[in-house]
Design goal:
Two copies of one chain form a homodimer.
Chain A (H helix, E strand, L loop, with lengths): L2 H8 L3 H9 L7 E4 L2 E3 L2 H16 L4 H12 L5 H12 L8 H14 L9 H16 L14 H25 L7 H37 L1
Antiparallel strand pairs in A: 1-2
Helix pairs in contact in A: 1-3, 4-5, 4-9, 5-9, 6-7
Chain A binds a DNA duplex through helix 2.
DNA sequence: TAAAACGGATAGTAGGACTATCCACTATCC
DNA sequence: GGATAGTGGATAGTCCTACTATCCGTTTTA
């Protein structure tokens, strides 16, 4: 396969392909002359993977580089790849009072008996959401503001429905990972399951909400 | 409250506040002189809302403008606000074969008896994910590629666990919306429930996955 | 009454993801 | 066998987004 075939099948410009190669997202083609190279199906597949992570998954190029580095490294096991994918999906944003909300997140996780590493970016992501919600349930939009003592109970009331729904789902996702014929395939499945399915869940929730909304409106 | 109080309490620079005012995200303060104005708690709250949508929710400024325009417009009902929030969360990305995957999405929704509008961006978002996955389950990473005839069955097998988990969740979310003391409060709850809880769900899923992963590893 | 803060406007910046152009070759078609 | 189109590699330029800096003439405040 030559450059023209690769770019037309992948739907990206040759300038983009060259750039991906330069920044190490894509391996070089096998060069056949000073200024010629041959590409194969693996290159095509790689570009599609890159485009899926960038366009559909919404990752940045840098996050994509890190995820693919984990996928490519034969030293890294499934847990490492999952950690890299989790880090990439994380918004990794330090909202104002995120740090203050972290202990509450940890207490919630402990109460649910969920074991997660100290360095999981998802902890901070969840804390950022809680901090933002807390800041916004002030004077305006007050929902019977509780006396801070049972702030943990508020958090549990808020998160439990979600955690209850997601816990068995996550279990089935992890259990559903095949023993993997070869590791690269498993690594890619983990990445797609994390990055793309995040978008699928978001979309499905909105569809389910819309359906629930119209159903509720019809009943009235 | 003067500018200095507003910016220190909100944690943003005065240049940013001025810019938010200029682009219409934030109303002007009540001016008391040619170059003086007074701000109140509503301004503070608004900035916090904007920051939450931008930083935690990951919306762009333009998406935030559209969402807040819907929140501010007293003509728009709960369903309109929800639609605006859904549109803002949508990645609204036309991945290569998204259009081709749309009919399959619609068949899936019909099979689940989910009623959603033609114009729901979530339909296209879900289609983009399915199109990307389809493109990637080729030569490499083939999972016993099915003969295209039962592509719908594959999609159902993939999505059912997620839809099963999200359907009751969405129902309880919609049912949990209070009759609302006043409309602005309800509108804001809808937006936060859509935009921020999307992030919370993403984080909780990753936490649940990590927990499931370590639990599975321990059993071995 | 001098220093600091302010509202309003305009120009500039940093980062991200490409895109365009150039060069010296190679491949291909008639 | 020569014109034409395509190629790898490199560098510079572009567009967009979300601010940030600076300036000005006017209040406020110490």
């Amino acid at each position: 396969m030559r450059m023209a075939d690769l770019t037309s099948r992948a739907g990206v410009s040759s300038a983009t392909v060259k750039w991906y190669i330069r920044i190490g997202l894509l391996p070089r083609g096998e060069s056949t002359a000073r200024n010629q190279a041959r590409y194969d199906e693996r290159h095509l597949h790689r570009i599609r993977l890159i485009r899926a992570l960038l366009e559909v998954g919404g990752l940045t190029v840098e996050q994509t580089q890190q995820v693919l580095a984990a996928v490519d490294d034969p030293e890294r096991g499934a847990a490492d790849v999952a950690a890299a994918a989790h880090a990439a999906v994380s918004r990794r944003v330090a909202h104002q009072h995120t740090a203050e909300a972290l202990p509450a997140v940890d207490r919630y996780l402990a109460a649910r008996k969920w074991t997660v590493g100290e360095s999981s970016p998802a902890r901070a992501d969840l804390a950022a959401v809680l901090a933002a919600l807390r800041l916004l349930s002030g004077p305006i939009g007050n929902d019977d503001a509780s006396p801070a003592a049972d702030a943990d109970a508020d958090i549990a009331r808020l998160l439990d429905p979600y955690a209850d729904a997601l816990e068995p789902l996550a279990r089935s996702e992890v259990a559903g990972l095949p023993p993997a014929v070869h590791r690269g395939e498993l690594a890619e499945r983990i990445v797609l399951g994390t990055v793309l399915m995040d978008q699928a869940i978001s979309a499905l929730r909105r569809l389910a909400q819309e359906n629930a909304f119209t159903a509720a409106a019809d009943r009235k």
